[in-house]
Structure formats: C-alpha cells, structure tokens
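Continuing the series of single-chain predictions for the mutant panel. This is the parent chain; the variants come on the following pages.
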Amino acid sequence: MIVMMNLASDFDELVTGQLQKNGFVTSAAHNPYLRFATLYARTERSVPQIKYSMLVSTELQGNPQFQLLQPVINEIAATLAEGGAVLPYLSRMASDPNSQRDGLLAYWGIHHLHLSSISTIDAKGHVTRADYLLFVRFEGGIAHFIDILPHANRNAFVDTALIEIVDKNWPHLHMELNRVTGHILTESEISSLRKANVNAALLVNGRTVMPKMGIMADGHSIEVIRLYDYIGYELDNLERNVRLWFHSYFMPQPPYAAYVKLVTLDDKSFTIREQISGQEKRVLRQLKH
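Parent structure:
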C-alpha cells in the first residue's frame, strides 16, 4: 500500500494559515522556519490565553502607584484568572504581526501592560495609552507582577531594576551561570546590544544570570529554534511510525493507497487524518521535560 504523507509540509501550512489569519503577509523570502519564528513571537507577545494565577513582588506592593491603580490591576488580574485576552492592555504593536521585535520581551521575558480601564477601549481594541505601565512576566501559568513605572520613562524597557526585582522574588525564573563573568550594564549599553542581537550575562544581586536563553544572530530567540527542531523531530518520528504500523492508527486499511495529513496540533497532541476514509487519530506528544 502506498502511504502519501508529508507532515512537515502540513505543519508549515498550519503555521502559514494562522499567520495569514492574523494579517501577516507572506512572501517567497519566508521559509518554514521564519514563518514559525514569526508566529511564535506573535503568540508570545500577545500573551497566550490560559487561566493564570498571580504573584505580586514585594517591591510592587510597596509602590505607591499600586494602591492608586488597584482597580485597573484587579481588572487585569480577573481577566488573566478567567483565561481572557489581555491584548487590549498591550502595546498596539502586539497585535501587528509585521511589527518590530519587543526587546524587553525577547531578552528579559517581560511584558508591559497599559494601566487604563477596559472601559476606555477604542474601535481598534486598545485601551487608552496610560501614564503608567505594569510590568509582568508570564511563566508556567503564573503571571508575576513585577512593578509599575511611568510610561514617560524612556529607560523603563532597559531598566535593570526590573531584572533585580524578578531575581529577588522569583530567582528560579532566571538561568544562573557558573564560571561566567556577569556585567553591570548601563541603559545605553543594553539598548546597543539589543540592536546588534548580542546576548550578555548580567550581574544581578550578586548572581550571574540570563533572564532567558538569549537571541540568535538572526534576531530570533534560541527557544524558537529549539522548539522548531523538536517539533520537526516529533513529526519525523510520527510519520515513520504511521508508515510502519499504519493499521495501528487507521482501520480498516485502504486497499491500495492512503493520504495522511496533519490537521491540528497543540501542546499535548497531534491530530492526523486519513483523507480518503476521513478517519482521524489523536496522537499524544512525547514532550521534553
């Protein structure tokens, strides 16, 4: 029996379709990896919609603006707890798949939210740009509320005080590097390194750390290439297994040929379909820990 199947190509089709749905304009210059990297960055930037629990730093609790802006913070916290979309509170660029990279997020894993009520939302789906920003790190289903800084502070996005607060309150979020010399960098130095796609180990609270894995020379995060390679490895294994043990996935077996296609995937599983018979099979992923 002939089994026609190209799960890697199917995966690229799913990625491309999602990008086009979100307004991204594809071109011949975009290969499958670049399309995936773009979708990954866009998804991360817009904050995945799951039900989050919240943790608040000691420094934020002591910030005078925390009490003054409590109604809006509670509004955001309620939305996160319900698995709702916080896109209205994010930068307008977060909803633009063709926008420039968010350096604060790419290098330090930190989002910034505008502290204006949802009642101020405009026709394009954004709340009024606020005088103050809430800085948050989302990790493992937890929203870590770091601090509030004035929107007018031009150095807010390169302020190492944010990293210091994260490290004091949740040190496990940072990768501590042994036998590596960390650096205390100025805001100007941090900005220059980001523009050049250069990683730097930071000396924070006496520890040498990397807030995230870092950025590659092409400007995409190391996490992206690792994830893309692993998904490719999973799909290669699945395709090989389907060819070897077709009857374990689809019954009855077509007499002459089968056409197997990847139709969906999520964090836990792949769904494949035999197109001729219409049978679908959900296959659990072998996730890394």
